[in-house]
Design brief:
By secondary structure, the chain is α+β, with helices and mostly antiparallel strands. The chain is 42% helix and 14% strand. Helix 2 runs antiparallel to helix 3 and helix 3 packs antiparallel against helix 4. The longest helix is centred in the middle third of the chain and has 21 residues. The chain starts with a helix and ends with a helix.
Amino acid sequence: EFEPRTTVPLLPRQEWAFLTDQSTLIAADPKHLGAEIGLIAVLHSWGQTLTYHPHLHCIVPGGGPSPDGTRWIACRPNFFLPVRVLSRLFRRLFLQSLRTAFEAGQLQFFGDVADRADPQAFARLLTSASRQDWVVYAKPPFGGPEQVLAYLSRY
């Protein structure tokens, strides 16, 4: 729904801020993991069918050092962080970033989406997007860490 030349520059900054700030806050919470985490992220701008589909692939260890740095805290089996919480936080932060960029005149709309330059039309778009479920998909690698690194290293 958004012009790729406009939204792609927002994605790395917004997604990176989200992943580093919010994920680390959630991970640091003792009721979730109670550890500091790090990650490696690769931005893909196209989906498997070669349609515009900006998204990140992330490599995140299944745990992290304790806040005092004295031990490793592993995540629970088959659970890293609550994806529903991550999804809602990402949706809120990304839409907030779009709203800020729109208000600062940093977004441009062309062709079929040119009407979204109107503030009321843009507000309706944000309202509609805020009512949709957004997906943060977290899963263990299919074949193991070597396959994940081989796949992502091609980009």
